[in-house]
Fold these 2 entries.
Entry 1:
Amino acid sequence: MIDRLINGLFRVYILLAILFILMPILTLVVFSFNINRHPRLPWSEFSFIWYEAMWNDPAMQSGFVNSLIVAACVAVIATFIGFCTAYLDYRFRFRGKIAILAIFFMPPTIPIVILGMVFLVYLAKIGLFGELYSVVIGHVAYCAPFAMALVRMRLAQMDENLEAAAWNLGASEWTTIREIIIPFTRPAIIAALFLTMAVSFDEYMIAWFVSGLNETLPARILAVLQGQVTPQINAVGSVVFVISISLVLVAQFVLLVRRPQGSR
Amino acid sequence: MKNHGNKSNRKGIARRDVLKGGAAVAAAATTSMFLPRYGSAQDGVLNLLAWPGWGHPDTVGPFEAKHGVKVQVKEYAGGEPMLALANSSPPGTFDVILTDAEYVQMLRAGDLIVELDPNDYPFEDYWPNYQRFPLHWDGDTLYSVMVRFGYLGLSYNMEQYTPKQLTSYSALWEEGAAGKVGFFDWYLPSMGCLSLYNGNKSPFDIDEEAFGKLRETMNSLAPQVAGYYSYANTYSSLANGQVWLIPGIGEWLTLGLRKDGVPVNTHIPDEGGIQWTESFSIARGAQSPELANEFIKWMASPEGQVRCALRPGNETGIASKKGWEKLNADHPVEAEWLRMRLDKRNMMDEWNEGKIVIRRLPFQQTIEDWTQAWAEMKSV
Amino acid sequence: MSIQSEARGPPSGSRGPYWFGLFWPAPSVSWQMAFFVAPLCLLVAITFWKVANFQLSADFTTANWVSMYSAGYFWDAFLYTLFLAAVTTVLISIIAFPCAYALAFKVSPATRRLGVFFLLTPFFTSFIVRVYSWQVILSNDGILNSGFGAVGLGPFNMLNNSFSTIVGFFTLAFPLVILLHLLSLSNVDRSIIEAAHNLRCGRVMTVFLIIVPAARVGLTLAACFAFLLSFGEYLSPSLLGGSRPPTLSVLLVDTVKSGNHWPKASVIAITMIVTLTLILFAAVKFAYHKSPGADRD
């Protein structure tokens, strides 16, 4: 009896926590359909005008495209660097490894507002400021550790003798990477690609500082938010939310379907 | 691995194909990243550095259509961010810079704008006091063409206050205003209004003693303050009832809100108000200086001036008398809101009565002194 | 540098440079040197530079350090930021733990999956937009106050104070902390929990004597993340807190915006980095070293 009560209370607790987390998301979706420019209650009138405004705003469109390009590049580069570093940590022991890894993991521990400022000053000094690749440069340093962590966790699950067996059979170290390591870590590599892409796609501070005229979507949203009052932001937020959630659901579905035929 | 079974080999090929596809996508993405996007040496684009909203189709649409170009706007919120952007961008990034009058001299000091030919622009259509606006000229040399102006005073919630209660900025210190005072987070107009309250006739040209007093005034007001807001948050804080009084802003903000049904207005207290102006300059190294010149000419014409006055979400006064006449003829209702009716008491009367001072940069202290005092007030 | 294969390398026959071994550190070392270490060094150098007419010029002056460190508002912001981040960390840890505990031990796997799904959703919505949404919820005629108004309460001032700032920090860190707690709880060996029950250890006692110590590393790391994220967050204190009083990140952006003063902003940045590093170092030391009794792994 008491057990049931306690379990019930726990369920309510979880529900409240999730409600807190979902509240801003639900609000933004609801108010994206409100005709009033200044979101306040009472709710005035149902309308699609903010979606139309978003659709017709060239800055939003180019921001969206910019974000996709940046996210794709960041995912590829950061995952590559992360993979190399993960294998480095897994396979080798040498003096200075701790130092390399410590520096490697440092960017995410620095507040992004500082990173944004640092990159702006530095990239402007060396003449790489204000282009899309400036954002990529900033995001890779920030995202690579996440990719590294995912691949490293996967490598930790690998049987150490697998590589040795391949060498004994005459495979070169490069071949072993191609035939053993990459296939084994593939789920982690794919996860890393998605994660770094997601992190880059949503990152606003570095992008805001260094993108100059080539704003990414979050940088554009931040500029709009500081610059003018328009519930377009709610519309954009809702659309991005729906797109990302659908991607996640599709990914989940694909994984579920694929699982029966031989997962590791 | 050569001796290994076919199976793994086939898998390997498939995987390589996938990797190749991925590499192609990445390569395509990377290439497109290095292609020129906006601005850089691209025809048919006029790059404008301006306050938010200047790229609105209602404002620049006819110009774009007439010249077959796109007006691309990089937005800023505040004179100092504008200077930072103008200084840190390579030459040729911007064609036209819109700025407030007091920053024209700073742009000149940084050699960021070029001389203009006064004969290109219809100054004879302007109100007399705007034909040779002091901060835009250096002797007989013109650097900037004025388009819009407005007054800054005390903006208030009409359900809480009437203009009669706001004859002095001292209303900010009253008990009822505790926690209901807000600020637009820009030191210059905010401190300017408080300097007026202190009785400084030229609020930006004050000696060390007066500056010390100004800091005392600021710090004594700080406990009343609910927040220091960004451009957009200033709108929402007034709109959602978070604050009732904001000094240092004006109808550029409250008019748009009022049209949206929010009960807010701006009053100029007896101590006086401050005038802001916006003007266009041509950037040094502009990619298309002729187009830039055409743009400014159009904005100074009666038609362009009316569109400046009615810029959606940010309606304000304009400098051209011909523009006023056209506005009165074509949009009498809007002219009434904007207090630009030629047959009634209007914005020009306050100027003529001497209630308004021009906003300038600090004279006897550095900008840093003032921003530091502002930072100090914010942390009280 | 000399790179050695871990004990289990292949029999190496060839002479010359060990290309394979040199390849792996190359990407991270070269990238981080060019685009992280070098910028950081520049940041340190800039603190000694000066700004004239909105432009940076190299110099060697300690004026920026002196003027920043002697400014009262800098230390006010520093203490306020530390205070906010500490309070947020404690609150998030306390509030998140029961939620993760319930998800780990008290619900069916299906419910757990659903819960994790909802915990993941915020990661797919722009954080900026979520913060902006809180304005609509918390403002004086916002959703919450309308609700309170309907039952004759309020309106309550919920914006532009520490409360709303902390709500912003929660928006950023709360889901992450629950997930990290959940992760470390699911690694706790269930047999020791059963053993504790068999030894008549009470429910609450089990949690505090068995589960929390066993999951300590994960819980501390989660707290680190909460601290880290809230210490440097900019949007919550500026958009929800009304910059009043400013936190270090607000002060940093203000310093850059008003007058382009990069050197002073760099002083703030370095102070933040050093503070964070010290605190994280202490926390990690606490998590891994001072382990009481039976040390697993």
Note: Chain B has a mean pLDDT of 86.
Entry 2:
Amino acid sequence: MKLQGLAVYGVDYLEVGTLHGVLLRSPVPAGKITRFDSSVAESIPGVRMVCSALDQLKFKAGWVLMDQSLFATGQVRYEGEPVAMVVADSREIAIAAVATLILEIEEWSPINLEESMTDRARLIHPEWESYLPTGGTDYPRHGNLASEMVADPGGVDAAFETAHQIIEDRFTANRQYQAYLEPKSALATYMNGRFTIHTSVQFPYNVRDRVAQLMGVRISDVRVIGHVIGGGFGGKLDASLEPLAAYAAKVTGRPVKLTNSREEDMLTCPSRENAIVSMRTAVDSTGKMIARDVQVEMDNGAYSTEMPWLTSLPLHIVSAIYNVDGPTRVVSRLWYTNTAPTGAFRGVGGTYLYHALERHTDSIANAIGQDRRAFRLERLIKDGAKSLSGQVLHEAGILSEAFQAMEKIAPWSSILSELKPNQGIGIVSGVWMTNPMPAQVTIKVNEDGTVQVVTAATENGSGALSMGVTQIVAEEMGINPRNVSISMPDTDVSGYDAGSQGSRTTHVVGRAAKDAATLAKAQLLKGASDILEADIDDLEIVNGNIRVVGSPAPAVTVAQVATSLLWSVGPLTTTSSYMTPAPAYDVACGSGVMFTAMATPTYHVHLAVVEVDEVTGCIRVIRYIVVQEVGRAINPVGIRGQIQGGVTQGIGLALYESLRIGVDCRYVERSLEAYRLPIALDIPDVEFVILEHPDTAGPFGARGVAEPPIVFVAAAIANAVSHALGSSFNDMPITPEAVLASLASRGV
Amino acid sequence: MKNTSFQLNGKTCSVSIDPVTTVLEVVRRHLGLLGTKEGCNEGECGACTVLLDGQPIDSCLYPIGACEGRQITTIEGLGKPDSLTPIQSAMLETGGVQCGFCTPGIVMTLTALLLQNPEPTRFQVKDALSGNLCRCTGYSQVVEACMMVARDSEGKI
């Protein structure tokens, strides 16, 4: 369908009589709204409604903290923040009407991360204390400090006093924009106190919650219907235009649609946050790491999305993989700034955290004069290693296996010896997780023997549903995958699903699907055993036929049994729910630890070979190799797609994509012309090896696959470039300007 | 407003509209063909790619007024409802389609490439794709699909 242009994406969806909403967005990053006048707009023919904070309901909302309103209220906090909305018969009329709105703002000096970090800047949210946490439990935050995690086991400073050598590094990372090809949109209708939202989002149930919060209704008064998604990568996990469309639908009594232009989308998308990471490690005279001190400063933007939870992510990464024989202190802070709210992009902060860890590891290896791969192998964690949160990584020994697999396909010493003068090699490794959040799957067996899988899980294109879950159900039930259909999300119909994030769909939804399929199979076998007068244990289902094992004799089809059951006991429908049990951790490991463990961990090794063009400063990735633990490969073509796609996004992050915040707190890059996404010519064919150690809880042993390929790429490339040029590239992305500057200082 | 007549997917079509209106806008809003996508509206992403007299263009930048008497082909004009063209089948097989939003544009670009150059090199395929952004696949499987068609086609597309 996609190949023929027949798939209906969120942007394509329309209903009869749809009105169009266009937003007036703040042109400045910070200031007090002193005047708003919509009288001209209201009188334009075709304009149905004009609204702003002056009319809207005073409800607050948020995923973790309720600090957001429908419109900017009294003040604006970031460039692009919605201030008002015009709804009209056509988009053109709405755009023209928006241009007549009078908005006056007394500008304040906008606050960026550097200034917010001082903790002495103007309060971006003077009423921060009145904000309520969405989940009920508050966490460490005050003023512009949106969230803080401190893990200090003690003994760090003492260990540094005894150090033979102290290696210290500072890393910066710019924001990365998800840049899904389909801009955000939403269409809403309102009837009898209920809102229906049509949108293409990764997490329909979360969007439901946000709309309910902002409209001041129960969550069951909001229905979210999902359409085909043109990419998300984390940027479509939270609501954006939906609450605005909902409000407009309620006031006008008509369907209302809003669509972001690409510029709007870029300016307001919850991009991966910019961050500053400082790492210090004490090393003894034998080269053993004896203590580490890490500080992370993250940019929250003007409002909190899920970022407060992610403030604790550094705890799981900064000493994750290479043994530090002593204490690690981690202080991680999230700061409000007058910029667009930040959020999740595949891998979240893992990309810059592994970048920091692995650059720092190379730095230490170089400082003590040890080969970078040997340094890592010597200190690699093993089965049973404890993370800084106290989680036991039972299978960390897979890392060693992964390094060996990498060595087979890319022998380190021989590549090193064959490198040309302007080439470099980098190797990195790490642990990642599979998001554990809940899923529910219902299986209906139709009278024609086909199966309908009802789920609110979203197929974002990875194939987790269209290939993975489909195959899991077909395999379990003994039917042809072509006879398995998967529903689109509808929060009125399907049970809660935490959406496509953190590689959870194949593992969590797949598990719920498999369990439901097992129940359905049991009912089919029971029905068949009555019909065939055979023992249940002697029966099997093969290609839609239920028969006695190994016998070619009279069989009965799934269709026949399903029909027979319908008219004897009732329709054959089964349901199963699943959530990954939370791994045990040490509750005393720190304060403000909201992200507590890496559920269903997977292990990875990445290797990059790069070449530097000494004239242009451009970096070419000559070779990129991934070794990844997947548990069990359900669909190899799908796995390849996720690895190739994830690495490509990682290469973009490492070398091309730069979403910078200017001195005026406005984005410097504001279009796809300036924000340089990778094209086909930039990307090598990624080589990969998958390891399969089945996870006991996963469907057929599968673990999460899709998110981690991006996580380690910037780290591997930065290490390779630093090696090629003999200098440290600790800022992301590595620009040609930075490369040329480095070459110039080398006297080349 | 001006009358512009052109061939759309092999059928004569006529619109009475401001000639500056983009081909993308005409195709999606006025002719109801939603397969051609708007990704950026500034000629950067290629999701809006259609063929004009067999050449790929960014329909978001091209005025309909300049299409008088010419042939426009959109994704809906390729193959038949029940059958995919060779490049479409190949992309399905190699895994070159994930979210699919860039897919119509990429199919148009590769269709045009294969018509002009039935046996392109990998570099030529990648070069032809310079105007098509894909955020999901990382391109390799898309390129492989094109190479597969080139190998199997023996000159027939």
Note: The first helix of chain A runs from residue 39 to 42.
